Amino acid sequence: MANVRVDDKFWAPRIEINRTRSLEHQYEELIKTGRIANFEIAAGTRKGQFQGRYYNDSDVYKWIEAASYSLAAHPDAKLDARIDEVINKIGAAQQKDGYLHTFIQLLHPDEKWANLARYHELYCAGHLIEAAVAHHEATGKRNLLAIAVKFADHIDSIFGPSRRDGTSGHQEIELALVKLYRSTGERHYLHLAGFFLDQRGQKPSSFEREYRSRKTESQRATYQRFIKGSNIFDTSYCQDHLPVRQQTEVVGHAVRAMYMYSGMADVAYETSDQSLVDALTRLHHNVTLKRMYVTGGIGPSRHNEGFTRDYDLPNDTAYQETCASVGMILWNYRMLKLTGDGRYADVLEQSLYNAFLAGVSLSGDTFFYANPLYCSAVDTRIQGEEHISNRRQGWFSTACCPPNVARLLPSLGKYLYSQSPKALWVNLYVASSVNIELDGGGKVTLRQTNNYPWDGHIRLEVGMASPQEFSLHLRIPGWARNPQVRVNGNQAAPEIIGGYLELNRRWQNGNTVELALPMEAERLEANPEVPQDLGKIALRRGPLVYCLEQADNPGDIDQMLLPVSSRLESHFEPDLLNGVTVVTGRAMLLKSPSWNDQLYRPAVATTPEPVKFRAIPYYAWANRQEGKMAVWVTASK
Amino acid sequence: MANVRVDDKFWAPRIEINRTRSLEHQYEELIKTGRIANFEIAAGTRKGQFQGRYYNDSDVYKWIEAASYSLAAHPDAKLDARIDEVINKIGAAQQKDGYLHTFIQLLHPDEKWANLARYHELYCAGHLIEAAVAHHEATGKRNLLAIAVKFADHIDSIFGPSRRDGTSGHQEIELALVKLYRSTGERHYLHLAGFFLDQRGQKPSSFEREYRSRKTESQRATYQRFIKGSNIFDTSYCQDHLPVRQQTEVVGHAVRAMYMYSGMADVAYETSDQSLVDALTRLHHNVTLKRMYVTGGIGPSRHNEGFTRDYDLPNDTAYQETCASVGMILWNYRMLKLTGDGRYADVLEQSLYNAFLAGVSLSGDTFFYANPLYCSAVDTRIQGEEHISNRRQGWFSTACCPPNVARLLPSLGKYLYSQSPKALWVNLYVASSVNIELDGGGKVTLRQTNNYPWDGHIRLEVGMASPQEFSLHLRIPGWARNPQVRVNGNQAAPEIIGGYLELNRRWQNGNTVELALPMEAERLEANPEVPQDLGKIALRRGPLVYCLEQADNPGDIDQMLLPVSSRLESHFEPDLLNGVTVVTGRAMLLKSPSWNDQLYRPAVATTPEPVKFRAIPYYAWANRQEGKMAVWVTASK
User: Fold this and answer.
1) Is there a contact between A602 and B217 if contact means CB atoms under 8 Å apart?
2) Cα A615 to Cα A631: distance, rounded to the nearest angstrom
3) Are residues B605 and A564 in contact, defined by beta-carbon separation less than 8 angstroms?
4) Using one digit for the tens of pLDDT, what is the confidence trace for B368-421?
5) Domains of chain A
6) In chain A, which residues have their Cβ closer than 8 Å to the Cβ of B292?
7) Which of A188, A261, B160, B448 has a Cα-to-Cα distance from B234 of 20 to 30 A?
8) How far apart are the first and last CA of chain A?
9) Over chain B, what is the mean pLDDT?
């Protein structure tokens, strides 16, 4: 990531708003909601009570991770100092033995490591480690890394094959320990990650054994989510129903699933464990072929914040948590690294430009937790569940999503390119430059310019001191038809293998590659097994999924029918929603005699009126006045 | 009810199966699941532990009520003796002071009247009282009535204006106390019913005060449903958000709402309290105009077993609990009694023939708890939640629905006719005879014959010793257009007022009335505010709502489009589903190129194939092999 500089017209302003607005806004929320004070109270430097939920420490860690990525690309002494100030508070709260979890320290000191199913100690530890590695890489400082290492070593002294068993109710520690291994070279962290993965799926479950050992009714009550019927302890909610290598279906809480699969991919990458890769391949098939929204988002149900069953993809009640989309990006990136297969980059791109990006407003200070694909404009907020709303909110009592957005955006550079011994792979078309060192020491710069995602013309220029032979692999997205490529102005016709075309040659300074990915707006239909999308179509152009929003359309969008085969047009509107390409075309507007105060009446045959529709990218919805929105629109027959 | 004899070709076989099959089957389940043993254990005549849930006593009471209604119409010495045997066990379990609730007696004796929000003591007392009154009326015996009176007097000694406050988390006691008042003439039961209604909607809620007084964390945990956010105690789940006279929207748990409105209507009837009638009228408007399925069922959400918001009526996840449909029948019957307005009879009929009747199989031994309006044929059962299924089940761990069906069917006679001083009102067209005594002592018999609901021709014949002047009011259902009526063969043209036509004359023995309610199959559309029914139509013929079931149709019913204006035909099929009139017509079947293992693809324009559809009454669905079912079908445009 340090070698990539993003200067993309689409992403750079979002990253800059994230830096100037989101990070500041979220820091204020961390202060206001007592999340930082919890560390001071645990350290004894402030009086007061623990505030919030048992996972609140993680929001602070994620903010540090986000701020560190931002710092890496954009030095900022004030932010640097602010981070150090927060790190000092964290360090002061850490116990002598390395333990650190302010909720347990302040409210339930007797529950230390006693309720792995619920209390997220290992989850928070994972976010601490991720923050520490990011902070160390961005600044070279070791202050947070030392805290993380101390906690990780404490964890390692407690859990393991010859020590106690157990694993985290919410996965995260696994992928974090692999990061710590990579950062420190200490292989025991990798082993511990594998251990935590291997703990899942035992019979009886480690969580059930923990539950059986709890003494009081109030302790036992915290396991309620797992209790189904009188004698069934079902831990599929946290992917503990089977050993990880035997899992075939994506189940349970979507974020937990994504973080676990990411951890599995990391361990597989480091250990070449093919049985993990096989399981991940099966799970990826299941989610992408049966349980994923067209936006690349996942997890339809608010009730388990996760998966239900094959082809159950409701639009109005779509949960599609923003964090789950972050998880899809994390997992697919690791699958891409593991396999080099472009279809993982396709899913990454799909989640990134659609489900993920809808999670944050253009202004950078409000966020979706749940992301519906249909909005009736009725206020669907439920008292006490402000995270399910048709309007983005500034913050949430469970605030996982805002800092997840904030850490993903400034780390975007990480996902753009991959390197193999004699090749550079271009995964995403984001205007940027990258410096690499080839096997053998040759240094190459690649400069990518484009007007993506509005336009599919990509220009690449290589720079180097002396000619170098290597392959340039360019990803051809699954949505692209008839891509054209020119090298130094001359048409080339390389084969596309695994979603990438390969240009192998002896490159010289100033050589150019022009890739044309024709972007035509098109209609999609869903597999008829998806009951909620029957008879409906969605619009896609390039990587972007579109939606109809009420503000752009001449009649109630629920009463608009889209023909399956008329001409679609698109043009860029610079003043709309910070500049978007809209898709327009013919539609039919149903006109029915006015409804009085009836609920049902004999059906009236009517002649629809021809109108023109205008669709905007899904990511940009809910940035204007409240109104209806639909990704899937009824097709006229 | 004692004066009505049902001999209807449609209903009598269902009532007979209820008598011969359902009552027997349910008794076996009461035994098997320990529901009767709980009384013996509480009495000390059997060793063992309480089994099941805290409301299990009510299932036994409801079974006795059902069996008593059956006994009233059909003497059966064996059943009579079996009821007495169960009553003896109940009596033995009753405490000296009259208290009776085996869950509390056996498991939580220290929680007596301490957790009104949850433990259903008053709810079970209500069902005991209903059973006792029914048993007394059916048999003349006082054994169960004495138990109920003793418990009611105990309750009356504890709760009341000068005694302690509080009301039941689950309503039922209110309507039961009015029944007990009517049966015994003891007015204090009526006052107590009013007291329990008036307890609702206080600030802070009586349930919140109860919660604040609880000492242990495990006690407090039982109030979780009410806790929304850190400082919000929301009791709308049990209609405790506002004083009953100020309520305007149907909210919360649907069965609780229906039972409460029924109790309010009973109290209003006895006390002429117009403020209660006004509230009920508002609530009725809200439910029928914004929150009711086309089947007359209510309560879309499984999460509160109840209401969500206006126009939210999902089909696939429709909860539409069978007990809530029973509740709609109970409430609408009381509104009809209170106002004489036929629209309440319309809703009663709509719920009875559709949402309610779908709750029980033709064989009488399996039941729906939740009743979807769309079934994708995927097994939607959730482990530990077998009450949400696309197949009827024999029993449920929460078994409220089967005995509610079993008590409604044999009491059908109650709903058919009403009497006012000089008039007889025919509410429902069910072949039957009724004996009434007019003001002044004249005795009249009315004999109703018909082939309803398949045919709208109704024949009525009056019988009497000497001519009598009175009015015969015949309900003209809201769905009927151009009804015709003949008296002794001569066309009459009475006005229709409040949904009834009035024939006032001096009737002579053998006079006949012929009413013709033309029954044409028709298409319905839902208010476009209902997102889930947009672009769809439903079929109705007379009082019956129809559905497409996969077994009757030539292609995937999800791929069938119904024209809005082509001709619909109907004919009776004697061998189908115990004999039903089917509705048939033209449809278009979408043919799309086969789907491989894809989830989304570019939309393909296709030419649909003309086919013929066949629809069956909704109540009869899921009585054959598993397959898709839809009430709302996409309309072709």
Assistant:
1) no
2) 9
3) yes
4) 999 999 998 766 666 566 777 888 999 998 999 999 999 999 999 999 999 998
5) 416-516 (2.60.40.1180), 524-636 (no CATH)
6) 599
7) B160
8) 49
9) 95
